[in-house]
Specification:
By secondary structure, the protein is α+β, with helices and mostly antiparallel strands. It contains six helices and seven strands. It has a seven-stranded mixed beta sheet with strand order 1-2-3-4-5-6-7, with helices on both faces.
Length: 196
């Protein structure tokens, strides 16, 4: 019998809180080894449940089909991108593009430590869970783009580019950051990809 909202062997994903053990597993079995990822660890431990309950974010836990070990998580929320900003008759006009923000995305270092030979977990989560959920959403509402505000680390930017994300040219990026960047993503870089 399939597990979760999506199963793609060897993993499945489900909404945060679908298993009674979610809170305990997150508190006791989830960490991020790289210090740059501490914000993602703090989010899942302290903010994910309140934001889930407030319907401001939907977080999905990815687990092993065989052991139910916590593999990673990602969070999605509705959003839009603005472009072609112009001042006209004393107010700002712009075009909008409906999108979904991949607001959080992390692989559990505890899982990586326990399974050191398993490679490409992030790519699997992105292609087998993140994109299919967004495509499912796009059947009910308009969605043209998936976007993130990525931490400004070259290795991470390169990984997102391998997943199909792009950066804007420098002028457009600066303009977008000036009007759309969330306060908690202060140093992050906007990246996007169009849905197929």
């Amino acid at each position: 019998m399939p597990k979760g909202v999506i199963q793609s062997y060897p993993f499945y994903c489900d909404h945060l809180g679908a298993l009674k053990r979610d809170e305990d597993d997150i508190a006791n079995h989830f960490y991020i080894k790289e210090t740059a990822g501490i914000g993602l660890e703090r989010y899942i431990k302290f903010y994910a449940f309140p934001e889930e309950n407030a319907s401001t974010m939907r977080t999905y836990l990815v687990r092993s089909c065989e052991t139910d070990e916590l593999v990673g998580y990602f969070s999605l929320k509705a959003g839009l991108i603005s472009g072609n900003e112009q001042e006209r008759d004393g107010h700002i006009e712009f075009d909008t593009l409906p999108g979904v923000e991949l607001a959080n995305f992390a692989v559990n270092s505890a899982y990586i430590d326990a399974h050191p030979d398993y490679k490409g977990i992030g790519a699997i989560i992105f292609s087998e869970f993140v994109i299919p959920i967004i495509e499912r959403i796009s059947k009910d509402i308009g969605v043209r783009v998936v976007y993130i505000f990525a931490l400004p680390f070259e290795k991470l930017i390169n990984r997102y580019e391998a997943y199909g994300f792009k950066r804007l040219d420098e002028k457009s990026e600066d303009s977008l950051h000036a009007r759309l960047k969330p306060a908690y993503d202060e140093s992050c870089i906007f990246m996007y990809q169009h849905l197929a």
